[in-house]
């Protein structure tokens, strides 16, 4: 079976790595891929946003299944186009993908189907939004750009100055472009954040291990939001009882709600949650594997991923037993200094062959230059390690990082540690 993976980050490297282990897989292609992916797949310089180009590539290479990693092609309707051409593809249709591509759509959807979330107001005019901040008892609050902003379009405002500045940046200065045509101002929820991802074929819903992302760039959750600086699973914050509550009150109603709207949801449903005193509430939806949550989750998945994907496409997921490894897994992002702001590229990466054998390295922003692996993005590498428990997994992953070096590299030193009793 030939499989095409769309994307070129750490999530896609993890997908390619797992798919390559399936006995059903004869060949893997990736568009565009990266230096690490190129070691196990044939890479093609087709952008994930070039849907006609991806359709042509899949036809030309006689691809059996296409697996979509990033959100932009999903929100642009890649699944709809592949289905029109009679080709199999893994991911939700464009209308269902609005759960991620429009936060306004998602909030109204949750309100309609009684899915627990923060109270909110929607604004399409900057002055009205600023007036609301001045007049209402709205602080602290969260300001969200409506559209896709690579995980950076959310600002937690604990004072009026920060809130007003966020509105100005998003709606007037247009730092996120058209994603800032509308904003949401919502109540600031207190609690622990948890990521619950699930496989679904539109009928059955199978949650994965609960994971926890680390969005802020610096230790102890300081600094600006990033695309994610690391993740681990499972997280003890989300107990078995809580997972069942999330399944019954959030995941299943979401899939049923999409179906009630006349659409089918096939693929990955990701609920970013805040575990509050009154229960779990949805902060946001994603319609694909999270990055960096995908990396530890895929590492912990025992079941053949190709089997799961085929079950979802063919709508017989209920016939598949999905198994997970015991223990824990941690993924730490190594970034270029300056990220999420300006950073250098084309820095030579050393030590990748010296990483211990019990540690995996998934490439995110890398490329080949004169036969050498160099940096090509803000998030450069994902270092992943398992352990019999979270403490051992943390020790293993940071031991693996010590082997790697490039100029001005940066990583958080506390990924997973807050879930270890007594850890600082």
What is the fold's blueprint, element by element?
Elements: E1 2-7, H1 10-19, E2 27-32, E3 42-43, H2 51-60, E4 65-68, H3 71-75, H4 78-84, E5 88-90, H5 94-101, H6 103-112, E6 120-123, H7 126-135, E7 141-145, E8 154-157, H8 160-172, E9 183-187, E10 192-200, E11 205-207, E12 212-213, E13 216-218, E14 222-225, E15 230-233, H9 240-260, E16 267-276, E17 279-286, H10 294-300, H11 305-313, E18 328-336, E19 359-363, E20 366-369, E21 372-375, E22 379-387, H12 390-401, E23 409-410
Parallel strand pairs: 1-2, 1-4, 2-3, 4-5
Antiparallel strand pairs: 6-9, 7-8, 7-9, 10-11, 10-16, 12-15, 13-14, 15-18, 16-17, 18-22, 18-23, 19-22, 20-21
Helix pairs in contact: 1-10, 5-6, 7-8
Keywords:
Dna Ligase, domain 1, alpha+beta, Rossmann fold, D-amino Acid Aminotransferase, Chain A, domain 1, 12 helices, 424 residues, six-stranded antiparallel beta sheet
Provide structural commentary:
The protein has 424 residues and is of the alpha+beta class. It is 29% helix and 27% strand. The chain folds into four domains: 2-91, Rossmann fold (3-Layer(aba) Sandwich), CATH 3.40.50.20; 125-181, Dna Ligase, domain 1 (2-Layer Sandwich); 192-319, ATP-grasp fold, B domain (D-amino Acid Aminotransferase, Chain A, domain 1, 2-Layer Sandwich); 328-419, Phosphoribosylglycinamide synthetase, C-terminal domain (Glycinamide Ribonucleotide Synthetase, Chain A, domain 4, Alpha-Beta Complex). The strands form six sheets. Strands 12, 15, 18, 19, 22 and 23 form a six-stranded antiparallel beta sheet that branches. It has a five-stranded parallel beta sheet with strand order 3-2-1-4-5, with helices on both faces. Helix 1 (10-19) packs parallel to helix 10 and helix 7 (126-135) packs antiparallel against helix 8. The longest helix is centred in the middle third of the chain and has 21 residues, at 240-260. It is globular, with a radius of gyration of 21 Å. It starts with a strand and ends in a 14-residue tail after the last strand.
